[in-house]
Write a structure and sequence with these properties.
3 helices, mainly alpha
């Protein structure tokens, strides 16, 4: 966790960071290009997590 926010396993990327990027207009492809350690499956799993 980073400051109490859930992170993607093995990274310092928070679910909040992903949501903030998407809210700012970044597409899934742009996020994946900016975060090469993140897979499409990771991104979708953490978006599903944030919806719960």
């Amino acid at each position: 966790m980073r400051r109490g926010k859930p992170c993607i396993e093995g990274t310092r990327i928070t679910v909040y960071d992903l949501l903030e990027s998407m809210a700012g207009g970044m597409s899934e492809a742009e996020i994946l290009a900016d975060l090469p350690d993140l897979s499409r499956e990771d991104l979708r799993a953490y978006l599903a997590f944030s919806a719960t």
